[in-house]
Amino acid sequence: MPRFRMASRRELLLRSSAWLALGATAGALAVHPVRAAHEMSAHEQELYAAARKEGELTWYMSHSDDATAQALGRSFEALYPPLKANVVRTTAQVAFQRVSQEIKAGAMQVDVLSTTDIGHYVYLKEKALLQKYVPENASRVLGIYKDYDPDGTFFVTSAGMIAIGYNSARLKQAEAPKNWTDLTDPRWKDQIALGHPGFSGYVGTWVVMMRKLYGWQFFEQLAKNNPQIGRSINDTVTMLNAGERLIAGSGPVGTAMSSAQRGNPIAMIYPVDGTVLIIAPSGIMKGAKHPNAAQLFMEFLLSTEASRIWVEHFNESLRPEVTPPAGVTSAKDVKTIRPTADEITKGIPEVIRQWRDTFGV
């Protein structure tokens, strides 16, 4: 079996320092000022008054890159001063591990958990570790994002897509892979970047979907092309920007297009077999230190203000009132595919084991 080198966290941080600095600037520019016309329902006013006494909340999230996460946090603060949103952006499995450690230690720090692995919420709900709260805004999102948990302990608060990214300065569109199976072509040996399902819920869901479509032999063939494997799915964009790889085999559309908007030579191919649609939940942890602020934040995540930020960062809007600008590709413009919640819950632990056996990392 060939040996694979997994890029270290330090290497990835060093490579992406300039990119993250630009991202933080873009995120700051995307913050919406307090709208004079922002009107609160009676329930929202009650939450806001109670949340002001708590002063802050802590949000663990893996739905996006750091620039988008910070933009969401700062927008919440602008809408509800003087509340502070402590944003901790990490990968899905790392966030869940951190929460698990806090539960075991009896020292809960997180108030709202947002990961890209729906299996986390199934587990936490079974263990009675999620606080039931049905946001008013939950009834106002698009139908595809409603009713994932009839008991009201978690709600879809983010949606994005995975396609194939490529460095458009070094590879012509006509020559780029057109479908997922094209990634196994020997011509792409040493040219593909991937995230890791053991860290990223986005990648875990993508691997479950690819296994469903093509069987595990797809990954056995892909391994022969010696992909460079990071942790977060966003690391694939870092590798393209650094010129280390030509192709992001598991390419996060939102992060890639945000990077392209900043002038980086990145473009996307939406595979003919289907672009993977990621639907990601959030929930309030039972025993949260700031329960009212957490409930207000859940309302915000399902609001038009949050959807505007998601769209600005090339992700999907949850609200029908917010649509992408002309010329921006969204889920309605392409064929999308996604595993069921049960397939994700059962499948991600399975594919993490298979992945490590096949790729050696």
List the SSEs and their pairings.
Elements: H1 9-29, H2 42-54, E1 56-61, H3 66-79, E2 84-89, H4 92-105, E3 112-114, H5 118-126, E4 130-131, E5 155-167, E6 192-194, H6 201-214, H7 217-223, E7 228-229, H8 235-241, E8 247-252, H9 253-261, E9 266-269, E10 275-285, H10 291-301, H11 304-312, E11 336-337, H12 341-359
Parallel strand pairs: 1-2, 1-3, 6-7, 6-8, 10-11
Antiparallel strand pairs: 3-10, 4-10, 5-8, 5-9, 5-10
Helix pairs in contact: 1-3, 1-8, 2-10, 3-11, 5-12, 6-12
Summarize the structure in words.
The chain is of the alpha/beta class. It has 12 helices and 11 strands. The chain has 2 domains: 22-159 and 280-328, 3-Layer(aba) Sandwich (D-Maltodextrin-Binding Protein, domain 2), CATH 3.40.190.10; 160-277 and 335-359, Periplasmic binding protein-like II (D-Maltodextrin-Binding Protein, domain 2). Strands 1, 2, 3, 4, 5, 6, 7, 8, 9, 10 and 11 form an 11-stranded mixed β-sheet that branches. The two termini are 12 Å apart.
Describe, in short, the structure shown.
The chain is of the alpha/beta class.
